[in-house]
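Continuing from the previous page of notes. For each protein in this section, the sequence appears first, followed by its structure tokens. Read the first protein now.
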Amino acid sequence: MLRVALTGGIACGKSVVAEMLVRRGAHFLAADTLAHQFYAPGSAIHGEIVRAFGNQILDRDGNIIRAKLAQAVFPNRVDELNAIVHPAVIEAQKRWMNEMQREAPHGVAVVEAALIFEAGVEKDFDKIIVVTCGTEQKAERFARRTGMRLDEARAEVERRSSAQLSDEEKARRADYVLDNSGSIEALEEQVETVWQELRHLAAK
């Protein structure tokens, strides 16, 4: 089985690429989905996050409000949050990939995670795909996704991006770089080219 990481900066289109890969037959896990599970009230990680960042990040039912947590975390306390959440997420990723190895020994298993390089887990993967696009495109997409004004979205994208490696550095370390600054058709063509190679490698 081929273990593939899918990463990139905020609002660059990782989820769109993931959907394209899944349509082609990839097995898929979003690390963010795992993190959400660990954020549930009553979990040990939930308690640690609240102790670190305060009750102001909670709603009246004790659920973590992701937007408020992001405000507390970015850009200066990202490492603190990652130290709480990442070990559990990384362990769960490894368990899932081992399960996929048993179920689909010649398949392609894709894990989407924003912080592959920052978390130091690139060694867990056979290939790494980085999705990139322009800064203004990120801001526009983030504004559409969150309902923010464009100037607010632009500031938030810059704030969060400052806590990650640059797109240029991620691209330098990647096996494949997908440019999502053009049309959806252009992106689809790039994904198809990469998918054919991934499928070939997985079949060996």
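Done with the first. The second protein uses the same format. Note its length before scrolling.
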Amino acid sequence: MKIDIKKIKRSIDKVNNYSVVKKTPLERQEQLSSRFENNIYLKREDLQPIHSFKIRGAMNKFSRLPASKLNNGVIAASAGNHAQGVALSAKKIKCRAVIVMPEITPFIKIKAVKNYGAEVVLHGENFAESMEYALELAEKEKMTFVHPYDDLDVIIGQGTIGKEILENFTKPIHAIFCCVGGGGLVSGVAAYVKAMHPEIKIIGVEAKGSEAMTKSLKSKKRVTLKQVALFAEGAAVKRVGEHNYMICKDYVDEMLVVDNDSICAAIKDVFEDSRIILEPAGALAVAGIKQYVEKNKNKIKHENIIGIASGANLNFDRLRFVSERAEIGEQREAIIAVTIPEKPGAFKSFCEQIGKRNITEFNYRFSDETEAQIFTGISIEHISEVKKIITSLESVGLKAIDLTANEMAKLHLRHLVGGHAPQAKNELMYRFEFPEKPGALMNFLQCLNKGWNISLFHYRNHGADTARVLVGIQVPAKQMKTFKKFLSHLGYPYWDETENPGYRLFLSK
């Protein structure tokens, strides 16, 4: 199959769906540009009526369908954004629309599709299974199937993004970065831009575990992934489109693959620059830009680089994961396991070695008479600091292990440190609010009686002006009066949780 990009370019020039589609702005990302010493711009497709570029391809497809193809309605398979594009387009021309969506589709996308009047059918664990079922329904009910990417009319609709970029940005462009799922966006943009300016690099970005286009281009044929990662569900397909592959093999200069932590970091970067929250697939281009510039930092300076912010349909409950992993993805948080001797003063020695670095998380539970295991998160400026921290800890006899790249530690271990401690005699459990400033923890430790042992310590940085801390302290009964005096002199808000049923069930002896 031969693809004529000049013909595609002429078709893109004729598209006029701006009664529904919005011409989106190009916005310079000031902080990213400064950090990476290049001029980084975002094409704000999150500002479309459905908060995604997918409305372009869907609307163009509908505008070219004859009435006979619409009589029984249309059907589509989608993880969400194409679904909304089809649903809104169908609403505009008063046509029945049925959307088959994977069962894992975020509720925000399901709700949006229904709000446009489309019928939603949840089927399958992934896009491939939804697609198969949608094709069965299309044949059974004589409906017109609207493919999310492997359709020239859809590709042409997405290609209007490339046209707008060239119309609005008259300076030389080094590269345009596109997220890649099935390949509709990158093939449309590549076809138009390469027909006009073949010197501009087109770079596709995929999520790790969903790199169908990367593997296809490497194999010189379309490949089908056995499994597909679903974090960036808007770009999670097992097999790229045939038309898309044919365009990409000739006109995409490079493919990049980024992991979940890098995607989370990119979401945070865009938020800090523009106060918008992209979905994971929508942030792929930014994650790719960062990886590309970092890899070529000695070659690329002050170039104009454009990324397509392709969508912003993020489930609110995903923000917790995004926030937690963003600092690791940005390599601004180190996770370290430290072994300290179980004796008074050891914990203070550990804190002295950390110094004024911000502790993002701290988990410790007494379990052994001789040694204690600490799980801690520490803010860093650069990943090279981790080695220095470990060397500093080991210089005072504290064994330390870097867990920053340990997936089990990042996903599970940080939430599981703890348990019953039958050896922790005379344990009191108190909850404190420390002021979120350097020296607050050391002040607490210095006020402690040297004979009292800390048997549990849990702290997470919640991004507030106070730090919430749970502390277990072994205090002999005869010293309770002294302990009460310590609490009153400390000056921090506190709550006695010794009788808390949660503590009794999971942490006490």
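What the second structure shows: The chain has a mean pLDDT of 89. The radius of gyration is 28 Å. We return to this in next week's lecture.
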